[in-house]
Every structure is written in C-alpha cells, then in structure tokens.
C-alpha cells in the first residue's frame, strides 16, 4: 500500500494540505503535481477542488490538465468540487451566483448529469454539516461503510441522481453523494473531514 504512487492533481483551487494529510494517516505519501509525467505514471489520482466551477475549469484549462484527466486510465477520485468537475456541465456560471438557468459551463464530461443549484425548500444553503448517505452496500468503494453512514458536506450545487450514482443523500431533494463511471469516482462530501467513515472510503479507494 505504501508503495503506491498516489498523485493529488494540483488544480490551483483546493486546500491540498488536509487532503495530503488524510492519506499520510493511511500510510501513503502522495505527490502534489500538475506535471503530465507524474499524472501519467500515478497508480491512483485525486482531483480536489473548492470554490466555483468557473474558476476550477479555468484553472484546469490554463494548466493543460483537461486532456490528461479525461485520458486517465488509473482510478481517479474527485472530492467536492473535484467531483462536480467530472460532470457534463454546471449551472454555477457566476462566482457567488445562486440563480439557475443563467447558462451552463462545460465541465470534464466524464460522468453523466449536470450540476444544479440544490432545491432545498425552507432549508438553508449552503448544505453544510453532517448528513447520511444511502447505498446498496455492493460497490467496493463503499465496503465496510453501512448505508446511513454520516459524512461532512459543504456545498450549494450538486449532481443530480443518475445511472452512475453509487450513493445518494437527501437535503430537500435527493442528490448524488458518490458517483462512479468506469475508473472515475467522485464524492460530493469531504472524506478528509469525515472521520472514520471518510478514512475508510479513502482506504477502499487505495485498494481498488
């Protein structure tokens, strides 16, 4: 396990220290890099992200990371905004905007579905804090994580539930909490801030 070459893709829009330390606690020392050779040689890839879809996709394009990520053949796991960037498109076209229907920004187009402003009724946005995920307990990424386990979320936009949804969460309406398409995976929550359940998810990813 400790010999795995784990690369955290330096998207320029993430707090990488907490992600790196989460893997170090599991005995793996990741490399933070945006270098094509490092990414291509990695055994596993992490795509982190915080902020807005506009800024994130701009950074990926400016760093020439889009074709590298799309061409990845090793398992890749996106966190939070990193997961959202795997989708087809996002409504989050304006920094700080929470007005759906103002246009779409193209994302990586790897997993099906769009990122939409959450419809939460009288609940508050952003969706911030601990919430439960529901899944059928069959996917290896979720081994040892019972359906109903709690994870830590901070977001206002979410991926709709699609055929690639591995786990869902409900906050006003259901949304995708974990997505999986071929070798690409994403978690809307922050595994590195989700205690034992988050650590188990990361361990499972390392064992894929």
Can you tell me about this structure?
The chain is built from 6 helices and 13 strands. With 208 residues, the protein is an alpha/beta fold. The protein is 23% helix and 28% strand. Strand 12 (173-181) and strand 13 (184-187) form a beta hairpin. The radius of gyration is 16 Å and the shape is globular. The strands form 3 sheets. A 7-stranded mixed β-sheet has the order 2-1-3-4-13-12-11. Strands 6-5-7-10 form a 4-stranded mixed β-sheet, covered by helices on one side. It has helices spanning 16-24, 36-41, 53-62, 66-70, 81-84, 195-207; strands at residues 6-9, 31-33, 44-47, 76-79, 89-90, 105-106, 114-117, 127-132, 150-155, 157-159, 165-171, 173-181, 184-187. The longest helix is centred in the last third of the chain and has 13 residues, at 195-207.
Properties at a glance:
alpha/beta; 13 strands; 6 helices; single chain; 7-stranded mixed beta sheet
Topology:
Blueprint: E1 6-9, H1 16-24, E2 31-33, H2 36-41, E3 44-47, H3 53-62, H4 66-70, E4 76-79, H5 81-84, E5 89-90, E6 105-106, E7 114-117, E8 127-132, E9 150-155, E10 157-159, E11 165-171, E12 173-181, E13 184-187, H6 195-207
Parallel strand pairs: 1-2, 1-3, 3-4, 4-13, 5-7
Antiparallel strand pairs: 5-6, 7-10, 8-9, 11-12, 12-13
Radius of gyration: 16 Å
Poorly predicted runs of 5 or more residues: 95-101
Q: What is the end-to-end distance? A: 11 Å
Average pLDDT score: 92
Strand line-up in the sheet with most strands: 2-1-3-4-13-12-11
Order of helices and strands: EHEHEHHEHEEEEEEEEEH
The gross shape turns out to be globular
């Amino acid at each position: 396990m400790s010999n795995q070459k784990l690369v955290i893709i330096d998207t320029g829009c993430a707090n990488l220290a907490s992600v790196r330390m989460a893997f170090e606690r599991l005995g793996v020392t990741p490399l933070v890099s945006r270098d094509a050779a490092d990414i291509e040689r990695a055994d596993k890839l992490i795509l982190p992200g915080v902020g807005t879809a506009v800024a994130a996709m701009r950074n990926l394009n400016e760093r020439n990371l889009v074709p590298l990520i799309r061409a990845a053949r090793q398992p890749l796991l996106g966190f939070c905004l990193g997961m959202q960037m795997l989708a087809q498109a996002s409504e989050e076209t304006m920094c700080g905007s929470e007005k759906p229907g103002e246009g779409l920004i193209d994302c990586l187009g790897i997993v099906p579905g769009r990122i939409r402003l959450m419809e939460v009724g009288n609940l508050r946005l952003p969706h911030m804090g601990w919430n439960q995920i529901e899944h059928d307990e069959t996917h290896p990424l979720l081994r040892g994580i019972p359906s109903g386990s709690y994870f830590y979320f901070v977001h206002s936009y979410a991926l709709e539930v699609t055929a690639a949804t591995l786990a869902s969460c409900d906050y006003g309406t259901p949304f995708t909490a974990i997505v999986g398409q071929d070798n690409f995976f994403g978690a809307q929550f922050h595994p590195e801030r989700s205690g034992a359940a988050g650590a188990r998810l990361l361990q499972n990813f390392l064992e894929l």
